[in-house]
Design goal:
By secondary structure, this protein is of the alpha/beta class. The strands form two sheets. A seven-stranded mixed sheet has the order 5-4-3-6-7-9-8, sandwiched between helices. Helix 1 packs parallel to helix 4, helix 2 runs antiparallel to helix 4 and helix 6 (98-107) packs parallel to helix 7. The protein is built from eleven helices and nine strands. 40% of the residues lie in helices and 19% in strands.
Length: 277
């Protein structure tokens, strides 16, 4: 089988499996499995693919056709212009979450100490620290496997950060100038209705926001006061329909200057507020 034939068969396979971007995914999997780039492909597309490489390509195609996320197969994802390693222990970083990083960077000042609650892959904290000066940060997550991924990503991106296993604030010490969080916020009953890549393969503990999707916001909003310096900033990612609920919770807890920020698609995506000075 030639490279051209392999690519076309891959596209057809993924299209039949209901993969929305079957062509792009087939390209990326062919490049990964055969260790080639597109320049090589176009110069050699009528060459025969070795049996070993073809078997590898067919193996990863099968995984993708089973709706395993592409990023779990390739082991990587870009976020905020940086490369991150990912596996099934962490959520795949999404472009929507860059809105949270944008908001954090718009408010950050040199010398700030940042806490990333529910850090997962570490993409939020690492992106903030990489794009700011003289800042320090700690990321915590209930999953030890996620913490290990975050540590690896900090090294990959040449960022100094501390990552620790903690059930919310259980093992958090000290005071912070900013707390950022993308907590689990999907209602339990809605998880089975999500795309198979999410519902079947991404870590449940990073998705499940309990009955109303607001459980972790409530706990973090209440506890964060003990860990924020006066005037300290609390920034959440939220679901598209949670802006009113989360901003109301923060106002009732006496946070000031509470604001809902929209993402590039025009959906509510971030809620921000701060403690009184």
């Amino acid at each position: 089988m030639t490279y051209r034939e392999a690519l076309n068969e891959g596209i057809e396979c993924l299209h039949k499996a209901g993969i929305v971007d079957a062509k792009n995914d087939s390209w990326l999997l062919l490049e990964m499995a055969c260790k080639i780039d597109r320049n090589y492909y176009y110069m050699h597309m009528e060459d025969e693919v070795s049996s070993d490489l073809l078997n590898e390509y067919e193996s990863v195609l099968k995984k993708r056709a089973e709706r395993v996320p592409l990023q779990y197969i390739t082991g990587e994802q870009q976020f905020y212009g940086l490369d991150f390693k990912v596996n099934s222990s962490v959520l795949v970083p999404r472009q929507d979450t860059e809105t949270l990083v944008d908001e954090a960077l718009s408010k950050i000042k040199p010398g700030m100490n940042i806490l990333d609650m529910c850090t997962g892959s570490g993409c939020i904290l690492i992106s903030i620290l990489k794009n700011s000066k003289d800042t320090t940060g700690t990321g915590v997550d209930i999953s030890k496997k996620a913490v290990n991924v975050a540590k690896e990503n900090a090294k990959l991106n040449d960022v100094v950060a501390t990552f620790e296993k903690s059930n919310l604030f259980e093992n958090v010490n000290g005071k912070y100038d900013m707390i950022v969080s993308n907590p689990p916020y999907i209602k339990t009953e809605e998880i089975p209705t999500l795309m198979p890549e999410v519902a079947m393969f991404e870590p449940m503990e990073a998705l499940d926001g309990k009955q109303d999707g607001l459980y972790f916001y409530d706990r973090i909003i209440t506890s964060a006061k003990e860990y924020l310096n006066p005037g300290g900033i609390l920034i959440f990612e939220i679901g598209y329909d949670q802006g009113k609920s989360v901003s109301t919770m923060m106002n009732r807890a006496d946070y000031k200057n509470v604001e809902v920020i929209k993402d590039l698609a025009g959906n509510d995506r971030v809620v921000v507020g701060n403690l009184a000075l």
